[in-house]
Amino acid sequence: MFAEFRRQKTDPAAAARLERKKADAELELAKEEAKDEGEDYERKRAWDWTIEESEKWDERLERKRKAKESVQFADYAQAAERAYERELRNFKPDVGAYLTQKKKALQKSGQLRESEDGSIIPLDGDNSFYGDINSLDFADNKPPKEAVDRLVKNIQKADEQRMKKSRRIVEDGDVMSSMHYSVHATIINDKNKKFNAKLSRYYDKYTKEIRDSFERGTAM
């Protein structure tokens, strides 16, 4: 218990989780008390809270609901899309490098156009910067060392998070217990278990005869 307390003191994320749990517990307690007194909690809250506080709380509940829905596994395409959106939110573009590369490409094309207001605009005539479907100039692009290091770091971080989650699942016993739901252990983690369950629900009726025939042949 002391070790857990010390970890929470040194881990801001753990302390934040504890505060959220405390707030949720206080909310549930207030709802139960209002129910016991025969009162409507939402109506009672409207009297005790300001409009701003009430709106903030509703926004927090909505964010919590969406976050809960977003982590539920539906399929691998959706999981990949969520991972892409998360990485995109954390991505910080190098605007300076972008402008430098654009300037070089426009100077290379050597084409100019006069705009409606009379200003001269350089054109990317050979599509070396704004490439089309036939452009192969991206193959000559050499990313800077900092960008490569950032990519490696992101991959390592993703691997660490995946391994940490796998260890947590095993420690909680989810995988080990779920492996006994069938004679054939065909899962590697809880996410895979849910995916296999969906496949089984839709396709087992079509593949049962094939599997039975295969197992009879193996036994012989």
UniProtKB/TrEMBL annotation:
<dbReference type="GO" id="GO:0000398">
    <property type="term" value="P:mRNA splicing, via spliceosome"/>
</dbReference>
<comment type="similarity">
    <text>Belongs to the SYF2 family.</text>
</comment>
<dbReference type="InterPro" id="IPR013260">
    <property type="entry name" value="mRNA_splic_SYF2"/>
</dbReference>
<dbReference type="Pfam" id="PF08231">
    <property type="entry name" value="SYF2"/>
</dbReference>
<dbReference type="GO" id="GO:0071014">
    <property type="term" value="C:post-mRNA release spliceosomal complex"/>
</dbReference>
<feature type="compositionally biased region" description="Basic and acidic residues">
    <location>
        <begin position="1"/>
        <end position="10"/>
    </location>
</feature>
<comment type="function">
    <text>Involved in pre-mRNA splicing.</text>
</comment>
<dbReference type="GO" id="GO:0071013">
    <property type="term" value="C:catalytic step 2 spliceosome"/>
</dbReference>
<protein>
    <recommendedName>
        <fullName>Pre-mRNA-splicing factor SYF2</fullName>
    </recommendedName>
</protein>
<feature type="region of interest" description="Disordered">
    <location>
        <begin position="1"/>
        <end position="22"/>
    </location>
</feature>
<keyword id="KW-0539">Nucleus</keyword>
<dbReference type="GO" id="GO:0000974">
    <property type="term" value="C:Prp19 complex"/>
</dbReference>
<comment type="subunit">
    <text>May be part of a spliceosome complex.</text>
</comment>
<keyword id="KW-0747">Spliceosome</keyword>
<keyword id="KW-0508">mRNA splicing</keyword>
<keyword id="KW-0507">mRNA processing</keyword>
